[in-house]
Amino acid sequence: MAESTTSLSPEFDPRSPYYVDPDFEPNENFPKVILSQADDNYFTWKNLFLQFLRRKNKTGFVDGTVEIPEPSSPLYQPWEVCNARVMSWMMSSVSEDLLAHAAFADTARKAWEDLRKIFVPSVDFKINQLRRRILAMRQDGDEVARYFGRMKSAWMELREYDRLPECSCGGCRCEVKKRAEEGREKEECYAFVMGLDEDLGYVRTQIMMMDPLPSLDEAYALVNNEENLKNMFG
To answer: CB neighbours of 168 closer than 8 A, spacing ≥ 6?
Structure first.
């Protein structure tokens, strides 16, 4: 005798994006980063918020993969509930000056796009902004670790918008991506060492004379070691 299986309705199925959690709490395990224009922290906020939504299986409500059901559909009511919850989470994670963009949008998807346009009005604009920020970045008396963190974060954000070219030859014999990656790593290393304080200038010279040039992470390890020795022996 065949076993019978019972399929759960989407709003009761934890695997479904329409799942309506009966234990819903607005700030449960919520990311601690608040989106703010003053902090210009959209990249960090976006990634943390998406991680939070993945844990809730609700990313589709902001990336557009969960579409609005017809009002006559049995999915419409759970969609309304889930959409409202995502918008509630969003409103709890933005600064007061951005609250209206999340509060008065019709859907979480619309609120998500409105916030994105504030910080990334166009990809070309953002690439230009990030490159200027990287060129102007200096250690300015910070610990090397803190300076490296600022530099690393800026390059990670740039990689999201200024993606390296992909090989299109089929067999990848042209090494386009490899050469592009090598070029980007040189850019990262040069930007990092050129922004070091003058008391670490000798390390900068050593790194720039290395062949091949180290990656950003490798350059940081070398500089951080020198800083530790300098602090230890004065």
So the answer is: 176
pLDDT in tens, 188-231: 999 999 999 999 999 999 999 999 999 999 999 999 999 999 88
Q: How far apart are CA 198 and CA 3, in angstroms?
A: 75
Looking at the structure, tell me whether residues 87 and 75 fall in a common domain.
yes
Separation of alpha carbons 231 and 223, rounded Å = 12
Total domains, the chain:
2
The residue from 119, 153, 174 where one domain ends is 119
The verdict on whether omega for the bond into residue 212 sits within 30 degrees of 0, i.e. cis, is yes
Contact 87, 102 (CB under 8 A): yes
The pTM assigned to this predicted structure is: 0.84
Residue 171 belongs to some domain of the structure? yes
Let me know: does 174 contact 65? Beta carbons within 8 Å: no
